[in-house]
Write a structure and sequence with these properties.
Elements lengths: L2 E8 L5 H17 L5 E8 L8 E12 L13 E14 L20 E9 L4 H17 L3 E8 L5 E8 L2 H10 L1 H13 L2 E16 L8
Helix pairs in contact: 2-4
Length: about 220
Amino acid sequence: MPCVQLQIWRVPGHAVVASVATTRAQVRRLRRREAVTFAKLLGTASAQFVPWAATPTRWALLSCWPERPATVALRHATETMTLSLLPLRSRGRWDGVAPFTPAGDASGWDGPLVVLTRSTLRLRKAHRFYAAVPPVAAELAAADGCRLAIGIGETPLLRQGTVSVWDNVDAMTAFAQRAAAHVRAITATPVQRWYAEELFTRFGLLEATGSVDGRAIA
């Protein structure tokens, strides 16, 4: 059964450079393994990824496996969380590919849900996009049924996204349909044409271990 693994960890400030260098090397090795179909090292931020809210001491590693994944050892980490995820529904592209193959029944899933959004912004649209982010981030961080919300990003400005963990699909749907700033942003997306590429994926949360910022989500 295909499985996606998301590891999130924090390191001391003095170890950031060494940790990132080590993990980049690990990602390169992962990509050479036949069993790994996708691997990305990601920076993190607050509830939505904006350059000025980046958290340089917290990082994430996303990897896709055809079966149960092997956890990557994270040097220098003082706190870690590992999420094992079952792809339920995915649309869009990431670097020109569709990395997640749905393996479950999205309509029948009644457990905790993880939502990943990821986009490449058009440079000339970036300032308008980031002007719309703060109220959406505030809504997401305070949403009922949202256990965790962090921004993720591959570069400081144009390649960004979010990871959020929800009690269930009803909690996620209520936010998507009723949070005013979020609804305005979704409505504006096809008009403003903010994205050169975008991806939206729902996962079932199979297992969660560890904590983020001192908080467990299981």
